[in-house]
Amino acid sequence: MDLTLKIWRQKNATSKGKFVTYKVTGISPNSSFLEMMDILNEGLVVKGEDPVAFDHDCREGICGACSMYINGRPHGPDKAITTCQLHMRKFKDGDTIVIEPWRARPFPVLKDLIVDRTAFDKIIQAGGYISVNTGGIPDANAIPIPRASAELSMDAAACIGCGACVAACKNASAMLFVSAKVSQFALLPQGKPEAAERVQAMVAEMDRLGFGNCTNTGACEAECPKEISISNIARMNREFLSAKVGAQIPKEQAGGF
Amino acid sequence: MALKYSSITKKIIMALAGLFLISFLIVHLSINLLILKNDGREAFNLAAHFMVTNPLIQAMQWVLFGGFIIHILVGTVLQIQNWMARPTRYKVEGYSHTSFFSKFMIHTGAIILAFLVLHLINFFFRAKFGEMPEIMIGDKQYEDMGLLVIEKFKSLPYVLMYIFWLLFLGFHLDHAFHSALQSLGLNHNKYTPAAFGLSRALAILIAGGFILIPLIIYIS
Ligand code: HEM
Ligand code: SF4
Ligand code: FES
Questions:
Q1: Which of A107, A176, A182 to mutate to test ligand 2, by most ligand atoms within 8 A of the CB atom?
Q2: Structural domain of residue A67, as residue ranges?
Q3: Fewest CB atoms less than 10 Å from the CB: which of A107, A192, A251, B213?
Q4: CA-CA distance, A54 to A66, in Å (whole number)?
């Protein structure tokens, strides 16, 4: 396959950046998208040019590093996959492929296609955990958990923090990510004691970092590689509302609406 | 104030105000449809008279104004924050399979607002403060609101303008009802698909119902 690539090149976080057009030839339809990028970069290195910087790690769809906005879609033209799981057979010989970094104010571009996703870590630090003392392994059946809750919690916990939801959303909203993290704990007994504080703290941090608001458009759900459902966003809104109006929180800890 | 509220609180306010506005539209439409009744505008004028004289309705009128103002202000704040969250746009805009009209709520909302002002000048302020024709129903004299409406809708540009406006109201409503439920945290694998259908049905029935009125008056 011969392809034309239009790739966002940006030296560093402060430089302006622009699209640069490259040609790649003889790409196998069976190679993955990242292998195609590797072939491009080998060519650039041989020519003495700076290779295109992009994030990647596991290359099997579990780390969430491979952020690329390909032809108008995060992770490119396929459902429920990451960029590293995308194959070149999804494209046609002679295609032009436009590759951009995630675009969101809280995800500043560091270099080329790499963005800084520390904002997600900050949201997790605000409440995406449970406080327990470590020690011996607890008995698996000590706390009964309804099967449906366990299933829904595991579905939410499938989120790999890739940021495709933010990239796809017209508002650069992080609601799908945050709602997945809120839900995975809120559904389980171990997460319940801190549920009210957690949802308030994580939402406050999400807002503070400058992510947009949800318009219930559903682009996040359509592009999420782990098919996280926006029913999690509804659950987060319920959790948030009941925390604000009903939770027994000391006055000094309760924030405003 | 709206700036300090969290994203979710703002959405909940937006949803409650929006649902209230939908309930108002249904009442408004039910009354308007009376004008199509072939009774010399009697039922319509009586209903209009009731609406401008009943103290409860008069009180609700202020709640309605408040609802509109809150919906518009909070909607504008949300939208500005949303634009600010993506300072650099994509070269290739999103292809994601999504609810189409949800992407244009601020635009359809702005069109509704622009025509709303005109609409209030045409009918509301005329009825409240302007000169009104009179009509005898039984042995009592009433203001002939119906005549005002029929006169307006005899002009083709007016009819077309109203239809244009109401189409955009329909577009706004298509993403209104189900979205408000989702904002309020009401999502269920059995009922949410029905809420989508109901949302579209409301959009078609409300916008379609309002469109029928100028259309039928103009044709007959
Ligand atoms: C009778 C007229 C109107 C009705 C029935 C109505 C109803 C609704 C409803 C139910 C929603 C969904 C709320 C949610 O997602 O939680 C909505 C959203 C919205 N409306 Fe309206 N609306 C009306 C007029 C307006 C006007 C005049 C504006 C002017 C700016 C406006 C701007 C918006 C915006 C920007 C949103 C999306 C907010 C977001 O999610 O980001 N609406 N509307
Ligand atoms: S919700 Fe989906 S798209 Fe968003 S960060 Fe998690 S895995 Fe990625
Ligand atoms: S590189 Fe790990 S998910 Fe793609």
A1: A176
A2: 3-110
A3: A251
A4: 7
- The distance of Cα B188 from the centroid of its chain, to the nearest Å, equals 27
A156 contact residues in B (CB cutoff 8 A): none
Kindly state whether residues A122 and A106 are assigned to the same domain.
Answer: no
| pLDDT tens per residue, range A145-164 | 999 999 999 999 999 999 99
Instruction: Tell me the ligand closest to A161's alpha carbon.
Output: 2
Residue A100's beta-bridge partner residues?
A: A69
Total number of domains in chain A: 2
| Model pTM score | 0.94
Q: Which residues contact B137 (CB under 8 A, 6 or more apart)?
A: B42, B45, B46
Number of neighbouring beta carbons within 10 Å of residue B170: 22
Same domain, A245 and A187: yes
Helix (H) or strand (E) holding A20: strand A18-24
Indicate if the alpha-carbon torsion angle A199, A203, A209, A212 is positive or negative.
positive
User: Token pair 């439920």 is at which residue?
Assistant: B181
User: Pick from A73, A92, A110: which residue ends a domain?
Assistant: A110
C-beta separation of A23 from A115 below 8 A: no
